[in-house]
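Run log // design_07
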């Protein structure tokens, strides 16, 4: 995979280093946007848990907690599966795919985008 994928895969530390090396002034805006996006995704997850729809979201949260994840870590992992669906809807104008979403939840903590590695 190219450099962009490498930065995403290695997490925030590498992204911050890449931004520092380019003396980017956009980090603050990126962090603020990320916080807003994370809050929106957490709200989606909380609504799904409250409504028990799909029920696999609550089951996944409970499983991740029992495997030693903190609630915040578990929510972020579930958020990755939500983000895949948001990406598909926004980029490809495809409808929500509950089957793919549930499958991605079942594979956590493995990331949905790591399946071909």
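design_07 sequence
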């Amino acid at each position: 995979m190219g450099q962009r994928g490498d930065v995403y895969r290695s997490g925030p530390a590498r992204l911050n280093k890449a931004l520092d090396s380019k003396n980017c002034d956009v980090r603050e805006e990126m962090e603020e946007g990320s916080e807003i996006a994370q809050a929106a995704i957490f709200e989606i997850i909380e609504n799904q848990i409250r409504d028990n729809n799909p029920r696999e979201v609550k089951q996944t949260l409970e499983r991740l907690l029992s495997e030693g994840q903190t609630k915040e870590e578990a929510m972020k992992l579930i958020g990755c599966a939500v983000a895949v669906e948001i990406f598909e809807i926004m980029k490809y104008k495809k409808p929500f795919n509950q089957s793919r979403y549930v499958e991605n939840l079942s594979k956590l903590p493995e990331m949905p985008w790591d399946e071909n590695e």
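The CA atoms of residues 48 and 54 lie 6 Å apart.
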